[in-house]
């Protein structure tokens, strides 16, 4: 009975988080690509193309099983969201650029994630037997749980700006608290599976975070001039939305074991990210 509660609450909590994020967005955030065209294109390219390739490299380096590999690859398809915006603020990055990237990816990911993920699964010919990937259902549920709440939050902000301004902090706090409780519940409900994967899972997760931060830093320094933009690109690429990956694994695919790596990531990624933020704050 207990095991089903956090799993049932996961889509609701993710939708609540996306709704609170939508309340902080506006149409200007989508139009800002005109002001930061190179940075936005670079950020999208690294998030949507480079990260999946990086995840595949780590899968082969660590010799992950199908379940572990699928969990890590699924995670690589879920850009950061509101968490990366907060981290960009802490690192003294370009928060406007971070929000714009979040706004754009929130529209794209519900469509790109199912398509790219099915291509990944199709390459695992032996392990693919018995693995049914409902692409249409995945896309529909991602739209319902991530895209619709974002649009709803934006509409409320547009129609009731004063109310939104007064309530947004409380909404964000409540959504974050609910997601935290759900994550704790998922850990407790899947503690045996979680502990079994802790060794190889820790290695894979830390490799993904550290290599994403490092590679994006090296690439961004070659193509961008503003330090604040470089910091933001690194955090947008280095921070993934574990909640979305867990929702797909639990709710859409009905495979809790796929959520183990994203769940570990949601906990472990904070260490290298805060080390990066500490360094970034020292760089002017």
Automatic annotation (TrEMBL):
It is a multi-pass membrane protein. It is found in: Membrane. Keywords: Membrane, Transmembrane, Transmembrane helix. InterPro entries: BilAc:Na_symport/Acr3, Bilac:Na_transpt, Na+/solute_symporter_sf. The chain crosses the membrane at residues 6-27, 39-66, 72-91, 103-124, 136-156, 177-194, 200-220, 232-253, 259-280. This is Bile acid:sodium symporter family protein. It comes from Thalassotalea loyana.
């Amino acid at each position: 009975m207990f095991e089903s509660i956090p799993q049932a609450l996961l889509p609701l909590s993710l939708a609540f988080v996306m709704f609170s994020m939508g309340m902080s967005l506006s149409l200007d955030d989508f139009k800002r690509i005109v002001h930061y065209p190179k940075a936005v294109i670079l950020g999208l390219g690294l998030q949507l193309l480079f990260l999946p390739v990086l995840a595949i490299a780590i899968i082969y380096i660590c010799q992950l099983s199908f379940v572990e590999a699928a969990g890590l690859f699924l995670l690589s398809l879920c850009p950061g969201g509101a968490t990366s915006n907060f981290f960009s603020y802490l690192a003294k990055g370009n928060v406007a650029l971070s929000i714009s990237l979040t706004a754009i990816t929130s529209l794209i990911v519900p469509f790109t994630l199912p398509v790219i993920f099915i291509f990944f699964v199709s390459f695992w010919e032996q392990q693919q037997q018995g693995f049914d990937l409902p692409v249409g259902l995945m896309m529909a549920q991602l739209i319902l749980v991530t895209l619709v709440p974002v649009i709803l939050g934006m509409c409320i902000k547009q129609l009731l700006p004063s109310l939104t301004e007064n309530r947004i902090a409380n909404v964000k706090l409540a959504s974050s608290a609910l997601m935290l409780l759900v994550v704790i519940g998922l850990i407790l409900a899947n503690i045996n599976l979680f502990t079994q994967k802790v060794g190889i899972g820790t290695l894979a997760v830390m490799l993904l975070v550290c290599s994403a931060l490092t590679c994006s830093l090296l690439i961004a320094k070659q193509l961008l001039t503003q330090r604040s933009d470089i910091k933001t690109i690194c955090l947008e690429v280095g921070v993934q939305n574990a909640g979305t990956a867990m929702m797909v694994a639990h709710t859409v695919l009905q495979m809790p074991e796929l959520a183990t790596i994203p769940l570990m990531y949601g906990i472990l990624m904070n260490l290298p990210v805060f080390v990066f933020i500490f360094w970034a704050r020292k760089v002017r």
